[in-house]
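pipeline: protein-struct stage 2 | run 1193 | Large ribosomal subunit protein uL22c
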Amino acid sequence: MIKKKKTEIYALGQHISMSAHKARRVIDQIRGRSYEETLMILELMPYRACYSIFKLVYSAAANASYNTGSNETNLIISKAEVNEGTTVKKLRPRARGRSFPIKRPTCHITIGVKDISLNEYEDKYMRMIHQSVYNKSRGGIWGKK
C-alpha cells in the first residue's frame, strides 16, 4: 500500500474586513505562480487587499518550511480562494431621528502552497509503478490473456 505524503500546506485568514470581490481580483493574479514571484507581485500592486494576502502567503510558506522542511524556492501557490464571510451590520444615525444601515462585508481567504520538488519524486515513483503494472512485456495485468 502506498502512503501519499501531504504535499499541500494551507494558511487560512478568516473574517478579513474587505469585500470578497476586491480580494478576488488580487488572488486571480497570483494563483499558480511561484512563491518568490508572488511576493514581488503583491508588493507592487496598489490594492488594499495585497497586504492581507501577502501575510497569508508568507504564513503558508512558513508553515511549509516548518512542517515539511521544504525550501521556499520550490514552493508554488497551488490553491488560492476567497469566500464570503459574515456581514457586520451597523446603524448610522440620520436626520429626523431615523437610522441608516451600514453593511461591512468580510471574507475568508485560503492560500495553499505545494512543494514541487516532492511532486517530482512522487511522479517519478508513480510512473515506475504504472509502467510495471501496465506493461505487456513484463507480464502486467494487461499482458495476460
